[in-house]
Structure formats: C-alpha cells, structure tokens
Structures
1.
Amino acid sequence: MADSAVNNPPQFPMTRKCPFGPPSDYAAIRAEHPVSQVTLQDGSTAWMVTKHDLAREVLASPKVSSNRAAPGFPALFPNIHLLSRPGQFISADDPEHSRHRRKVTSTFTVKHVKTMQPAIQAITDAAIDAMLDGPTPVDLVQALSLPVPSLVICELLGVPYADRDFFQSRSSLLLNRNTTVEQRMVATDELRGYLGELIAVKETDPADDLLSRLIDTYRGEGEYDRDTLIGVANLLLVAGHETTANMISLSTASIVSDADLRRRVIDHPEATPELVEELLRYHSIVEAATSRAVVDDLTVGDTVIPAGHGVINAVGAANHDPDAFERPDVVDPDRGARHHLAFGFGVHQCLGQNLARAELEIAINTLFARVPDLELAVPLEDLPFKYDAGIYGIYRMPVRW
C-alpha cells in the first residue's frame, strides 16, 4: 500500500478498521510516506499528513488557510465552500477568525463550563430516568447520546429544544459524504433560514442566552449583521451536538466491550477524565476540520507542498503514531494522552473542547453508576457505524440491562 500511495494515490477518506480504530492503511503509509498524495471524491488530489509532529507543524503554520473557498482547499464533499459563509469562523483566517471567536470564547472556558456542570448533570439524569422508565432494548443514541449535548447547546444558544428533529436531520445531511449537492444546498438554506427567523425574534425580544448576548455584543462594537450571526449560530449548533453525541456512543460501546474499562469507570469515576482523553485520541472521529489550503510553499518533513494545493492532516493517523503514543492501538487510560489532536491544534483548536469533556465525563460516569450492567443488545460488529459520515460515530445503538 505504501508504494502504491506514491504512484497511484489512494482514495480519501479511507475505510476504518472495524469497529473502532483508524483505517489500517494509515500505518503503512505513515511508516514509509508520511506526507503523500490522496485522491478525493471528485477525482482531485490533496496531500495527506499522517505523523503527529508533522500534523502539528502544519496546523501551526502561517502558510496554510482554513478558508474552504481558498484555491486548493481539499474538496472532501461537494460545495465545501458553503462553509466559508460569514460568521462560520472555523472556515476563516485571522483577523476575521479571531474577531468572531473572541466574542464567544468566555462562554467555553474551563471556569464557565464548571458553572454549567450542575445543568449538564440534571439533563443527563433526566435522560437516564426516561431511559430506565421505558422498555428494553433502547437505542442509546436517541435516549442519551443525542439528547444530552443537544439540550445543553440549545439552552446555551437559546434554540428551542422542541425543534431538535429539524436541526438534527439537517445537520446529519450536511455531515454525510453521500449527500447530493442539491440536498446539501436545501439543508443549508433550511437551517440558515430557521436560525435567521430565530435571531430576528431575539433582535427585538432578547432572552438570557448566548445568541441574545451576541446581538448586543456585535451591536455594541458597531459590527452587527444578521447574516454573520446566522453563520456563528450555525457553527455552534451543529458542532455543539454532533461531535459529542458520537463520542458518547463510541465511548459507551468501548466501555461495555472491555471488562477492565467498565470496572475502572465504576470503581474509579474520578479517573474518567483521563479515560475520556484516551478515547478521544483512540477514536479520532473528526478529520475534515483539520484540512487546510496551502497559501505559500510549505515544507513538511522532506516534502515541499506548493501553494494552491490542499493538505489533510489525518488526525486518526497522527493520533495513532507510535512515535507519539506507545502502543497506539491499545486503549490505555493511564498514558496521559492530552497531546492528542482530536480537538485540532493551533489557533483553530476546538472552541468547545472544555464543554465536550464535561459532557462526556458526566454522561459516562452517570450512565455506569446507574446502569452498571449495561450491555449491547446486538453484537458489536452489527452496529451501524457511520462509515459514510464526516464525523464518525454510530447511527443506532440498542442496549439493555
């Protein structure tokens, strides 16, 4: 595979190793050609970086751009440039990126997230209460994984949770690599239209929520534009529930499949933060967000990537680099994996990482404290994993106890 990666660039994304690990091709490519070309869905090519130290260098370099509309940005799905609309600062470079990000940073600090923990705990308790009151088996995705982060981000932003089916279905379409161009356009327009109507109400009837506060902040700085705030809201809403929901499901599947991990969570809940870091590293569910366009000739290892080319920092490969993590294909909660790249690296490192950690820790500890005998209701290999999605996870996860 490594030699063919040079002469015949393999397809990206690659098929994951069932059911949890990264694509098996990564190891051979990383060992012999850590910077190599891959072929994308539309037939174009991009460069793929598979080593941990090199990926960090790229993500910290001023010679790359996060702008999805920049020449050469990897076309990981059709119309990727739609992610570069005003306000969606994940797709912006400085100074625009920092101008928007700094307006919401205080909401996602460690200090502020700590004040949110009682609310997260109450939301988690209510979800598990409802789950235990119902019949078994139950789909954990619908019972716990999606409701917890969805309700948290809805309450934070001021988005009605009653509308969750609408925005979750549109988010799912936007994150599926098989969504057609027409479907993606419709889902984008519908979600933006919904948020625009919501924001218009808050402009004249503000509430105690982040979107209302952002209206005041932008107005106070003489920068208010509804279309921009729609972009900010879109980014926070989609990213705020999809990633954590998938991690709750995958983490639970990992724990119920490993007696030692289950016992650790039950006996030592205080050690769950370290387990969460390791599971974030091991599963590495997001790779597209760390793609970049090269705007000035960039040297990565022994390779020069010319301006106008795209580069994909394969997080799943970097987080399984044996030079960065000893025995990377083993889940080792004691390894101290906080230098993983699951949240990216550099100025675009995930804004919501502290909130995600809190939600994961509370969900895992509460679930196994209250349902210590939780088990899968189907064989692990029969679970419908999201091999076709831009954010890896599980579509449905029947469990019983």
Note: The mean pLDDT is 93.
2.
Amino acid sequence: MDNSGSDMLLWNTFREGNRDAFARIYNIYINDLLSYGYRITSNRQLIKDSIQDLFLHLWLHRENISETDSIKYYLFRSLRNRIIKNIEKQDTQPQTAESILENIIGDFSVEQVLMAKETESEQIIRLQKAIGKLSKRQQEVIQLRYHDDFSLEEIENLMKLNNQSVRNLLHRAISQLRITIEMAGWSFPFILSFLY
C-alpha cells in the first residue's frame, strides 16, 4: 500500500511546527523504532536514549529537515546512524547472558510476522530462540526485509552495504534459521515454505 502522499502531508505539517503532527509521528513509529533498535544493539537504555535524541533533534531542527515520502524509512535511517554513533562513543562491553536473553524474549514483532497464522506460544518462543541465535546484523536484515517490508535498495542504504552484501547477509540469515529449525525437529510448515 502506497501511503507516500499521507506521509508527505504529515511530515510537512510537522515541519511547519504542528505539535499534534509531531506527536502523531512519534506515536505511530515508536514501537517500530524500539523493535528495530533491538536488532542493532541489545542495550535498551542506549536505544531509548537514541530515540529520545532523535526526536529532540527532529523538533529542534524541524524547519531545516528535508522532505520525505517515507517517514518510516527516514526515521529508521536516522535512528541507525544515531545508535551507531552512540555505540562508538561508548566503550564496547561484552553482552551478558542476561542481556542476550532479554533481547530474545523482549521483542515479539519479527517473530509474530514470521509466524503469521501460527499463534501457539511454544512455537513463538522456539522461533524467538532461533532468531536470537542469529548475529545482530542478520536479525536486523530479517526485520528490515520481512517485518518492516523495506526493499533491498532501502536496506542497502540503511545498513550502508552494497546490494550483494545485503543479499548474502539475508541468505545466510535465512539459511541459518532454516537449519536451526530443521535440526531441532520443530514443525513450522509455514516458516519452512517461507524460507525457501
């Protein structure tokens, strides 16, 4: 569904200083931004701080911000850049088992999309664990492609990779997910057909 016209209208209304439009953008995209942030890092505080910084920056610089026909893409790209910048500022710390577990259990959005009609919580948890075994970049590319429905070209720009690198990353992620599911002997007919 093409909502580029409504996105442009909402974005331009916000750029003109309309607080309601700004609040609406925040409310529409906050959950998607949080979910996407978790695919880049498991540091929840850094994600929340980066989102807060992003929206503060947007409001303070609204008159100078460029137009867009996809608010979601604009926000994802901006958040990714901000998180990467904030990670570089911090001393890198190894992930604890607790933070890895939080990351796996803490977010259902990608898993729910991949599960489609499958609603049994046991299968959702199993799939969460399978996705949680992927690298952060693999989790990110899976989310961008299958949850957020971005094109390969948009993913290239978001992740700052060339087309072949995106394709390779996506292929490896899907292959690894498929192997994990098959090795565990889980029954995910929808998932297995999707992964081919």
Note: The two ends are 25 Å apart (CA to CA).
3.
Amino acid sequence: MTIESPLNGTLTRYRVMAYITGSFLLLLTAVTLVKYIGLAVGWDSEGFWSFATLVGIIHGWIFIVYVAACAFLWMRMKWAFGRLVTMVLGGVVPGMSFVMERRISREVAASLNP
C-alpha cells in the first residue's frame, strides 16, 4: 500500500508504534503470567521479578509514545473522539493493537483513494 500524502509519515509512525506496543504488551502478559504462576507454586527468583518489572516499565513508556502517535493520526484525520478511544485501547488489550492497526490503515488508505 502506497499512500502519497502528508499523512504518510503520521500513518507510518502509528503503524510502527502499534506493532511495538502490541509486541511488548504480549511479552508483558506472558511475563506476568509466568511470574504469578511461579509465585503460586513457590518459585522465588529475584532475577525474574526484576525482568518482569523492567518489561512493565518499558511497555509503559512505549505506550505513552503509542498514545501520542494515535492522537496525531486522529487529529489529522479529524475523526470522532470515540475513534481515538478505540485506538488507544488497542494498546491496552493484548493483541488488539494488531487488529486496530490493520483496520486504521485500511480506513486511511480508503479515505485517500476515493
């Protein structure tokens, strides 16, 4: 898909951040599950707890950049506020950012090629 417009950079930033955010959210979900399942069975490893905390912190900072990318694209497209909310929720629900990225990319492409 080639999009020749000022939206190209904004859409590309959104797409990249959607993939990065989604990947880190899946990693964070897996690490958290392992951490709490390990805690339930009596596994106590400080190194893993530190790793889980680090993944959580990194995802938090990435999520802030993702929200900014969503907001910039939302403002450029002049969508309703509900669309921004669904875009941001894509970075909160594991796997949803990939679905939203595909949907948003198609919608932007359709609006540029009537």
Note: The mean pLDDT is 89.
4.
Amino acid sequence: MEELSDTEVISLASEGSQEAFSVLYQRYVKRIYNYIYYRTGSVHDAEDLTEKVFFRAMNHIHNYRNRGLPFSAWLYRIAHNLVANWHRDNKRRKEVPLEDHAYTIRHGGEHPESALVKGQEIEHLIKVLQKLPEDRQTLIILKFVERLSNEEIAQIMGRSEGAIKSLYHRTLIALRDELDLQIKEREE
C-alpha cells in the first residue's frame, strides 16, 4: 500500500480502510507536527494538536474532495484552524512545560553549553515568529521548516505564487527589523 499514490490511498481511506489512513498518517505526521510545533512553541501542545488533526482528518476523510491541491493542504488547513483556536484559548495563560526544554540536554555528543545556547536561540526565534501575523508564521514554517517551494506554499495558502513571493519578502524584512530591535534592547 505504501507504493500507492495519495489519490489511491485517500480513496481507500475514504471507504473506511484503516490501513490506508495509517499510510497517510505516516506520510504526513512529521510535517504537520513540525508546523504545529513552530506555531505553538510547545512539544506537549504540538503532540496533542497533531493527534487532533489526524483524528479530525480520519473522521472527515469521506468529505475530502480533490480540488487540485495536494492532500497536505487539507491537513495544514485543519492544523491551522486548531492552532488558531489554541492561541485564542491560551491567550491569557502562558505555561511552558519543563519537558519542552528537555531537547537542549538530549544532543548526543554536543557539549551541554552549546546545546543550551542552541536551545535558547531556537526559543528566541520561536518567540519572534509568534509575534508575526498568522499568515506570515505559516509562510515561514512552510518555507524553512518544511522546505516547500513557493508554488506549493501558494497552493496550501490559497494565493498566487507572486503573492507568496511578495509576502515572503515583507516577512523577512519584518523579521530582520524585529531581531535587530531585540539585539539593540539586549545591548542597552
């Protein structure tokens, strides 16, 4: 079943094949998890929300219609909606579970001090990203984490490729300005 195209696997999954849905899960779980992790900054919440994305997808796969977009666009849309709800529900409450920072000490042969600095840099970058509007966060994650092309991002976000290029340019300028501002504040 692994050798089947997404279209064939989706068709089988929509007919109730759990094995087919499992193939879709294996193909997309890492991408969806990464997207959610970079949007929430929390390992625990990313795991929970990823589970919810695939639970919803499984329950609604029979409603999926191929409209010329990749299947991943449908999954990203579900993830986007769940993350938006998560941000709305957690707007006033900010908890950072301790296990989210455990990755800084799990680097095999890496010196603990280097791992800590790398972890702090990632945490800082996530905070800066979370200040961006949702569409810009999505763009950056799809471009740099998922390494998708502008054409693929345009399909997922429902925009033209030119609009994605323009948004990408404006987003990089905004990120640069925000990082410069934070560096100046730390130096003072």
Note: Confidence is low (pLDDT under 50) at residues 96-107.
